[in-house]
Amino acid sequence: MIKLSTFEFLTQLAANNNREWFQAHKAEHDNARENVLEFTAALISGLSKIDTAIPSDLDPKNCVMRIYRDVRFSKDKTPYKNNFGAGISANGKNFNGPGYYLHISPEQSFVAGGCWMPESDMLKAIRQEIDYNGSAFRVVVENKSFKKYFGHLNTEHKLKTIPKGYPTDHPEIEYLKLKSFTVNHEIAPKDLSKSDAVKKVVEGFAEMYPLIIFLRNSIV
Asked: Strand 109-115 vs strand 84-88: parallel, antiparallel, or unpaired?
């Protein structure tokens, strides 16, 4: 479970997002990060039983993201994130393609995953697979259990125009307009602090698994 002290550290960091405060509370950060690493290790163990592409011995240190922000191209110059994040794939957080993600924050925690803003060749391959196997894609994303948990695919990066090479009346045109193929499901932070938190998150990943498989097969 995610300890209440981990959420408390993130709350305090949000209110004191500067290097002086962080250095004075570095031990609290280290304890919180260790908690997240332990939680992620348990997630990896559970997920690897569902998705065999995820190594059971994957190092959680390769999955948990650094709390330091890259401020070089951002107007927001606060040096630290107000959350912990864990990206899980066969290569940990450094994946270019389908993967799983957990966002841990006292403000908003969620399970997410899929393929976010794939590069042009990968995007082309995914669209081609949807074009060829639209019925199989619908079986995944319109599954009753999938829709109950995630709702619909995220549409924040959806084209306003028709993608090149596809007719306006294509039966899957709304899916083909997508530039990302991702889903997310909010989890109350208090639920991440319960004894069954790992089980609940792994169940969320299990709901996502058919989408991951479809995307993974698209780009092989």
From this structure: unpaired
Q: Where are the domains of the chain?
A: 4-218
Question: Quick one: which of 126, 144, 51 has its CA closest to 90?
Answer: 51
Residues 6 or more apart in contact with residue 114 via CB below 8 angstroms: 98, 99, 153, 154, 180, 181, 182, 183, 208, 211, 212, 215
Q: Which residues contact 27 (CB under 8 A, 6 or more apart)?
A: none
pTM here is: 0.94
Interval 7-57: pLDDT, tens: 999 999 999 999 999 999 999 999 999 999 999 999 999 999 999 999 999
Residues 68 and 15: beta-carbon distance below 8 Å: no
Domain 4-218 has CATH 3.40.470: no
pLDDT in tens, 171-194: 999 999 999 999 999 999 999 999
- Contact between 194 and 123 under an 8 Å Cβ cutoff? The reply is no
| Cα 28 from chain centroid (whole Å) | 25
